[in-house]
Amino acid sequence: MTQDDAGAAVLRAWGAAAPDAVLLDGFHALKHALRFGARVGPAVTSDKAAALALAAELADDLTDVLRELLVEVPAQALRELVPRVHPTGVAALAARRDRQANLDAMAQLPRTSPVVVLDNPRNLGNVGAVIRLAAGFGATGVVTTGDLDPWHPNAVRSGAGLHYATAVERLPLEELPPGPLYVLDPEGEDIRSLAVPDDALIAFGSERHGISPELRARATRLVALPMRPQVSSYNLATSVAMTLFHWGGPAPA
Ligand SMILES: C[S@@+](CC[C@H](N)C(=O)[O-])C[C@H]1O[C@@H](n2cnc3c(N)ncnc32)[C@H](O)[C@@H]1O
Q1: 242 pocket-lining for ligand 1 (C-beta < 6 Å)
Q2: Which residue's CA is the nearest one to ligand 1's atom 5?
Q3: What pTM does this model have?
């Protein structure tokens, strides 16, 4: 097959897969998705030599895989597929992680690491940043409530494709996984006075309105992060980072 034929074929495959697929926007999203077992479909780049050079420098475990997978297409064709092309000029489509497997992973007790709950988050950048944190800390999963899709391309982009490294699902508040519910709120007890158990749900309120009355009513404990007077709150993702750090994180290698 000539390069033109391969380019045309990958663009047809993209068109067929796009409606149901997750957009992996950029080299890092594709790298993480591959490392954590995503089923990746069409993968394109406007500069294959540059993408392989990046792989050799940053992710040599994947250089051979990417040499096979990536198809070079003209820059204009890539711009038509992806509204805001990532500076690395790489994009791919993948299947979501299996929902039932995600729900089973979060329902299983005893858990060895917490599930993060974001109650009605409003900012997809925060959602992605939290998923990245959860993946790094080895959290069991991230549940969002409300109307935002945590698999939205902007969340996958800011999560650097780490949706495949932890269970990510949107659920109604009534269907949260089991486990003691530790709700983070500046009016709670100081987090330094308690331990966060491995099987906890650690829950955070929305950027605009904080924790909802429904979430507060379900709390096993209300927990505060230390903050000097006159500061009203921390950013959502940084609050998750502090709480996961206090929980403890993955065992040292
Ligand atoms: C940006 S804050 C919400 C601010 C919101 N305007 C409010 O009235 O609460 C987002 C979430 O981060 C968590 N958070 C922020 N600062 C915190 C603190 N000092 N202690 C505990 N949780 C905190 C809470 O879960 C909060 O709902």
Answers
A1: no
A2: 210
A3: 0.95
